[in-house]
């Protein structure tokens, strides 16, 4: 019996202590805090609408090409005796500079022969003039009034004059051939390629190389009808002093460095492309290797450039974030005071990555929703949140209407990425 009591006594003590401890812990534990009831409604991010000016612009791409480019070719046939050291791929040339010379010996001999022919023809004409004068005098001495033109030697005199004119024409032709043994640059420019060297036989019209003028380069920019309208350009446009073309900014990466050049639209193409239904707008950059260059980077032919064409400026429009635009002409507006969503149809002027530009349908200061909203409807309950410039988020609580227009605000620091979605 004593042994049984010694076994049960510790067990009883443990049970009593456990039960007592549980009671004491329940009595002294603090009351749990009650969390505020979560508000009903979808949390959405919004940005304020503001007023500003819309500077319309059109972006396009194109390849730089020289306005003037020709194939260098001789007008006569002969062996090449001289090639200018500047007439080489990438060389700079000046107007009137000798590029290529063909051996002139044959053409010099032709000039000598032609001059001899002229001298002979002049002598013959002088003799015929003298003989004609003698014939006329003889007719007068004989008292003849009906002497024939042949007796007066008129046909012989006309023939001698014609022979002299023919000899002079042959001399001029020989001199022209001699002058054409030298090929000169018709303008200041650069050499794109050369395909001739000393000793080579060059035939008339064969290509010796290709050169282009470096005073002006052009870029053909294809635009559609809406883009032409945005620029205010007619189909048959030609720039003038009274009506200059829109300014164009060209950009490209050269040797790993972003470069920029400035030009202007000078004309439009003559016809619409039947395949693309676009029309080419021609823009020019003057002195691309000098004053028009970006530092040490000229706007060289062959570059593929991005172009931004400046259009007209529309004053005082309403600007909403581009992500707030739904469809073609709708915006979701969040009423921070009531916590309700409002679907607005707006008069959209234009939209791009920087914003949606609206004439009417919203007011400056209203909050345009940029978050995706599933199954939206007018009056839908929402909680509007606005991201501030410092990265914090302002949460508008519509339940506290003591504020003077927007309700009470709560701010919390949040990461700038991943908080906003793409509108649906």
Would you kindly provide a written description of the structure presented here, covering whatever features stand out?
The protein is an alpha+beta fold. It has 4 helices and 24 strands. It has helices at 2-28, 105-142, 154-179, 225-231; strands spanning 42-48, 50-66, 69-72, 78-83, 92-93, 98-102, 182-184, 189-194, 201-202, 209-213, 216-223, 247-254, 257-268, 279-286, 304-320, 325-326, 330-335, 340-345, 348-352, 355-358, 367-369, 382-387, 392-397, 408-413. The strands form 4 sheets. Strands 1, 16, 17, 18, 21, 22, 23 and 24 form an 8-stranded mixed sheet that branches. It has a 6-stranded antiparallel β-barrel with strand order 2-11-14-13-12-15. A 4-stranded antiparallel sheet has the order 3-10-8-5, with no helix packed on it. A hairpin with a 4-residue loop joins strand 17 and strand 18. 25% of the residues are buried.
